[in-house]
Specification:
8 strands, 131 residues, eight-stranded mixed sheet, alpha/beta
Length: 131
């Protein structure tokens, strides 16, 4: 099943990556079912933000609290690869939880979508919403 992402949201992700270049940007994907409806940009608190990312833990706590209170569900995460390809790196693979979350990886000129499956990242197809 493809995930749904609007063209406006794709533009937001590209803008977020461009604004943080040459550092990695990161944040949270929210929505319902397989539809990404919003992004929550977060501070990259990793000590080496040019090549790694760590989402600010408070942003994660706040997003999960909002979801429990009836807000949009946390579906996954995004980050950029300012100098690399738009696919999960070996570091991403090593740090992944295998929890089924959706990941967006943004590189210059491309954004790709992945499922953090127990056996490793699986590519996801993308559908543009019609409404």
């Amino acid at each position: 099943m493809p995930i749904e992402v609007s063209s406006a949201l794709l533009e937001q992700l590209a803008a977020e990556a461009a604004a943080h270049h040459p550092l990695e940007c990161c944040g949270i994907l929210t929505g319902s079912a397989e539809r990404i409806e919003a992004i929550i940009p977060a501070a990259n608190v990793h000590p080496a933000p040019a090549t790694r990312f760590e989402i600010d833990p408070q942003a994660l706590i706040d997003a999960h609290r909002a979801a429990r209170a009836g807000g949009p569900q946390v579906l996954g995460y995004f980050h950029s690869h300012p100098h690399g390809p738009a696919r999960p790196s070996a570091t991403d693979q090593a740090m992944a939880a295998g929890d089924g979350a959706i990941w967006a990886v943004i590189a210059p000129g491309a954004t790709t979508w992945w499922r953090d499956a127990p056996g490793g990242f699986e590519p996801l197809s993308l559908a543009m919403p019609t409404r």
